[in-house]
Amino acid sequence: MRRLSSWAIPGVIGFGVVATFAIMTALLKVLDHSSYDIGGALLVAPVLVAISVPFVTWAAKEDLAFRSMLYTSLGVKALFTVVRYIVIFNVYGGNADASRYHEVGAGLVSKWRHGSISFGGVLPVARGTAFIERLTATVYSVIGPSKFGGFLVFSWFSWMGLVLFAKAMDVGYPGADRRRYQLGVLFLPSLLFWPSSLGKEAWMVFMLGLGSYGVARLLNHRIGGATITAVGLVGAGAVRSHVSVVVVAALAGAFIIRSRRGDDAVFGSVLNVLGMVGIVVVLSFAVSRAGSELGGESQNQVGSILNRTSAQTLEGGSTFESVRANSPAQYPLALFTVLFRPTLLEVRNATQLQAAAETALLAIIACRSWRRLVRLPRVMLSNSYLLFATLYVAIFCFAWSSIGNFGILARQRTQVLPFLLLLFAVPKQPEQLEQRHESPRPTIRPVPRPSSSPQSAIARPSRL
């Protein structure tokens, strides 16, 4: 049976690749764009699949079911990339940020090839929107200015981030309901659709997944945890430094609040002390940077950042009155707004209908997970990574409650969904899942004292 499964996986992969190429080829006759905009993707897709094979092998190891799930999710992600491309350029007429990223990126590559700028001009050495524009130029310098090819590469970035979230769960919270979380993080429609285009969401999901994997290793004292976390924070901070603030704040809280067993205290090692000092320094720097980017004043950085965010998101369509969590009594409504709005009763156009369908599905998952959520307060105090995810969700909902635009909220919600799904993966009964994954602690037995008489230690033969 195991041999049959190992042979079935390549067959499924091959069928999925052929089906995906057939769909992409059909698009060449349907979509009215230049040939290389879409045709270039036919050259990019096989390369991405080839690179994904060792990545999937590393992520799944001996878990053949998870390996099949990863390959399936890669194919589904490609199909959602097609849908995202059609929606942006055929439904909305290219009226999206992805169009600007493509134009600026293609322009930078053209200048580089004509000698107007050096290769450093196409490298992502910038911040915010300019970082994504230059990252697009870097991608185009390799694959050429293929619009759909760029979509595939960025969608692949986000897919790797989702896989890293699943790996972070394995390392940080092995007692979780693994299959439930893997299915959720790899196949939730919101995570398949929104971060599947040229844009900030794809890169943020990638960097948050990488940073979370580093956090899981760091909290479990594994080699490389601090380095991987730092890379994820720097990558995320290059685009949205305020998200890095949330990550660092949640990590600091996990260091401080987490419950330890026995003599493994929170500050019981020099490594933890140095880690806390570094976290405080990075947090202060990130808050300062976020405030300067959004026009905040040094006297009240956090309040200025939230006020500026609220003002920026009240522009354009799909606006609503934001719910700021200025007091504990307002926080439940703010949390509901960030995670579960717009509701189906608030739909006014097709875009809001899509977002409302996503939040309705998320609300159904939350309601079906109520037994798991009841156990969350007790379980998170015994697992540092679960505590980190809980704090991230709590801080994210507070900070993003200032957003007053359903469209922006739907896209940026992808930055919290992988953490929220982990809360829904707390096992109902710890006896069935947690104990199965926990390694038993070695039992310390008393050492027998040596006898004063050497002959007493020799067993005497018994008489029959």
Please tag this protein with its features.
single chain, about 475 residues, mainly alpha, about 0% strand, globular, disordered N terminus
Explain what the structure shows:
The protein is mainly α and 464 residues long. The protein has one domain. Helix content is 69%, strand content 0%. The protein has helices spanning 2-30, 35-39, 41-60, 64-91, 97-113, 129-143, 147-172, 178-187, 189-193, 200-219, 225-237, 241-257, 270-293, 301-313, 331-340, 350-368, 370-380, 384-400, 406-412, 417-423, 430-437. Helix 3 (41-60) packs antiparallel against helix 4. The radius of gyration is 25 Å and the shape is globular. Mean pLDDT is 79; it is low at 1-7, 259-271, 290-302, 308-312 and 431-443.
Rg over alpha carbons: 25 Å
For the biggest sheet, the summary is: none
Globally, the shape reads globular
> How many DSSP-defined strands?
0
Strand content: under 5%
Helix content: 55-70%
Mean pLDDT: 79
| Span between termini | 55 Å
Oligomer class: single chain
Number of helices: 21
In a few lines, what is going on in this structure?
The protein is mainly alpha-helical and 464 residues long. It has helices at 2-30, 35-39, 41-60, 64-91, 97-113, 129-143, 147-172, 178-187, 189-193, 200-219, 225-237, 241-257, 270-293, 301-313, 331-340, 350-368, 370-380, 384-400, 406-412, 417-423, 430-437. The protein is built from 21 helices and no strands.
